[in-house]
Structures
1.
Amino acid sequence: MSHIPHRSHWNNRWTFMLATAGSAIGLGNIWKLPYMIGVNGGSAFVIIFLLCIFLVGIPLMMTEILLGRRAQKNPLDGMNVLALEAKTSTHWKWLGGMGMVTGLLILGFYSVIGGWVLRYIGASASGAFSNITAMQSTENFNQLLASPFSLLFWHTVFMMMTMGVVARGVNSGLEKANNILIPALFSILLVLLGYSMSVGDMQAAYQFMFSLDFSKLTPTVVLSALGHAFFSLSLGMGSVMVYGSYLQKNVSIARTTIYIALADTMLGLLVGLAIYSLVFANQLEPSAGPGLIFQTLPIAFGHMPWGNLIATLFFMLVAFAAWTSAISLVEPAIAWIVENTRIRRKTAAFFLGLIIWLLGVAVVLSFNEWKEVKIVFGLNIFESLDKLTSTILLPLGGLFMAIFAGYFMKKDHVQDELNLAGYKFKLWQMTNNYIAPIAITAVFLYLLGVIK
Ligand code: TRP
C-alpha cells in the first residue's frame, strides 16, 4: 500500500528504526554489559560508559547513518563513492573493508554466546531451574562450558539461524517482529526487576552501579567502557551504515539516533540492576565474567512464581535479540560479495557462514580444551577476539568515520543529510570533529604508553 505517501514515509522510518534497534539491542546489553560492569569495578565503568555513549556513541551513530544514507551502498563501495564525491583518496574504501572483517570476527564469538542462550531456553522449559541454589546454578553453567559438544551444537544452530536469514536476503518480517518482541523484552525485564527488587539487594546494586566512586578508575576501565559503547550501539563496522542506506531522506537522523541509543542503554542498565541485586543478595561474585547472567538469572527464575515460563520467554526474547544483531554483523560483507561478484547470495552466505563457524569452533574450545592457549596479551581465543574487536577495531573504525565526515566530506553534504541547524549542528560538529576523535586517540595513545 505504498502509494499513500505519508504512510510510506512512516513505514520507512519504522523499518529503519526497528532494523537498527534490532542490531543495537542484543547480547551486548543483556549478556555483556552486566558482566563488564562487574569485571571493571562497578560505578566507575558505568559512568565512563554513559559519558562515552553521549559524547562519542550518539554523535558517531549519527555520522555512521549519514555516511550510509549518502552512499546507498555496502560499506566498502560506499566509502569509495563518498571518497569520490569528496574528491579525496579512494583508499577510504578500506575503512569499509576493515569493518566487514570486524563483523565476521565478532560473529565468531557472538554466535557461541547466542548458543548458550539457546541452550538456556530448553533448560528453562524443562524446569531445570526450579528451586535451584546459587551453587547449583554456577555448577550447571560450568558443566555447559566444559562440554565442547554441547557448545558446538548450539553454536551450530545459532549460525544456521543467522545465515538462513541472511541467505534469503534481509527479511523485513524479522524486523517487523522486533516491533512486538523488543517491547516484550522490556516488559519481562520489568517483571524481573520487580522480582529482584523484592528479594534481592537493590540498594547494594544501585550503590555498586551508580555511586560516584572513581577509586577503581584505570585506563583499562576507560578503554573497556569506550569499546563497549561501540559494541552496544553496533558502531564502527558498517552495520549501522548499511541500515542507514534504507533510511528515507526526510527522516531526522538525530532524533532516531537518540531514541535508539536511549532504549539500548536503558535496557542494559535495567538488566544490570536486576542482576546485581541478585548477585549481592546471594553472595555471588560480581566479577564472575562472561557467565554472570547465566549463573545469576536462573536463581531468580527458579524461585519466582511462573518461573519456568518466564525464564523460557526471557531466554527466547534474548535469543531473538541476539539473532537480529547477528544478522547485522554479516550483512555488510554479504552485500559486498553479492554486489561485486557473480556469487549468489545463498552461496556467499554458506561459505562465509562456514568460515565464521570455524572461528566459532576455536572459540568453543577456548572455554575448555584450549583454555590455556593464549593469543595476544595473555588472553585466550575468545578473550582475544572480543578485546581486539571491541577495544581496537570498532573505536578505530569510528575514529576514521568521524574524521572522514568531519574533515573530508563537504560541509553542505553533511548538513544536507543531518538537516540540523544552528546550535544542534554545532553540537554534532563539536562532538564529531573534536571530542570523539580526541577521546578515542587519547585512549589509544595512553594504552600504547605514549601518554603516561
Ligand atoms: N550491538 C549488538 C549487541 O549489543 C552487537 C552488534 C551488532 C554489533 N552489530 C554490531 C557490535 C556491529 C559492533 C558492531 O549485541
Note: The domain at 13-447 is CATH 1.20.1740 (Amino acid/polyamine transporter I).
2.
Amino acid sequence: MFSPSLLKKFQGIETPFYYYDTKLLSDTLKAARKAAEKQDIELHYALKANANKGVLKLVKDSGFGADCVSGNEVKRAFESGFKAGKIVFAGVGKSDKEIRFAVQKNIFCFNAESIEELKVVNEIAKGENRTAQVALRINPNVNANTHRYITTGLEENKFGINSWELDESLNVLRKCKNIKLIGLHFHIGSQITDLSVYKTLCVKANELLQWFADKDIFIENINLGGGLGVDYHHPDEDPIPDFENYFGLFRKFLKPGSHIKMHLEPGRAIVAQCGSLISRVLFVKKGMQTNFVILDAGMTELLRPALYQSYHTIENLLGATRKGKYLYDVTGPICESSDCFRKAVELTETRRGDIIAIRTAGAYSESMSLDYNMRSRAKAYFTEDV
Ligand code: LLP
C-alpha cells in the first residue's frame, strides 16, 4: 500500500494523520455495488463508520443510500448529496429535535427502536402535518459472536423492540395515523466473522415475516443491518471483502416473498481497509520488561484498542529494511495507561522520527476521534492529496 514515493510524501506531512487509499476505496465500493445489484439488495452505508466528506462523496457516487444514527449524520448525508428517499435513521435515543428535522426532510425510514419512539415520531409528524415511514427495529436475540461491546442483537442489549412487544407495537401503529409501517430492521452486531450467525438471523426474520403475514400485514422492506467483519491481521491479503458470498447468504436463507425489498447497512466492510493512521515515533523508551515506542498518535485518533482491546497491524514504514526484530509496546502520548495500541509488537529496530502506519483504520477511527488532553484533530488525506 505504501510505495517509496508515497512514503517520501508522508515525510513532508505533519503527523498524525489519516491516509485513505482512494483506489482501494473505489474498488471496494464497486465490488459491493456489483454484488448487491446481482442479488437485488439495496445498500445503505453506515455513516458512523466514517463520515469524512471525501469518503461520503465516493460512497454516494457509487449509488449507496445512507444509514444514520444522529441528526447530524442525517444532515451530513444531505450535505453529501444523498437523496431523502435513500436515508434511514436508526438509534435508540433520537431526540425530538433530531426526529423533527428528519420528518421535515422526509427521509425514507425511521428505524424505530421502542414503542415510545413510535408514539413520539407520530406526534412530531402530526405536528408537521406529515406521515413518517417507519420500520420496527426488532431485537432478534441472536448472538453475533463478537466483542460484547459491539453486540447489539441480544435481549440484554438496549437496542430494538423485543419480540414480546410486537403485539403492542401493532396496536400503537394502528392508532397512530401519522406513521406508516414499511419494514422490519435488524442489526445484531459488528466485526462479525462467524457468518453462520447471519443464517440464524435469517431464520428468525423468516419467522417474524410469517408472524406479520398471519396477521395480513405484508412487509415491503427488510433491512438486515451491517456487521461484516474485516481481517485486521492481514490487511493486504484480501483487502476487498467477499461481498458476493456475504450478500448471497441473505438471499439463500431469507425467504421473503418477491414483493419484499432487501436492504443491508455495511459500514466497516466498505471503509476499514482503505485507511491507515500514520504517525511518527516521538521517543523509544526503556521500560522494566519491555521497550516502549511512544507515538504522536494515540487513543484520541484510534480509540478501538483502548475500548475493545482490538488488534491493528502496526508497521514501521521507515525502518522496514533494517536488520533484526525487536518487541515493543506501541503506545500513544495520552495520559492514560489504556493508551496503548498493542503490547509486544514485533518491529525492526525503531528510532525517534520513524514513520509508523497503523493499518485497517478506515472504519471507526476518524469518526471516533476525541480531543481529550486538548488534542488537535488529525487531518485526513486521500491518495490525490498527498
Ligand atoms: N447498522 C446499524 C444499526 C449499526 O448500529 C451499525 C454499527 C451498522 C449498521 C454498521 O455496522 P458495520 O457494518 O460497520 O459493522 N465502534 C465499533 C463498531 C460499532 C458499530 C456500531 N453499529 C468498532 O470500532 O468496532
Note: The pocket of LLP is lined by residues 46, 48-49, 67, 90, 150, 187, 190-191, 225-228, 265-269, 304, 308, 364 (CB under 6 Å).
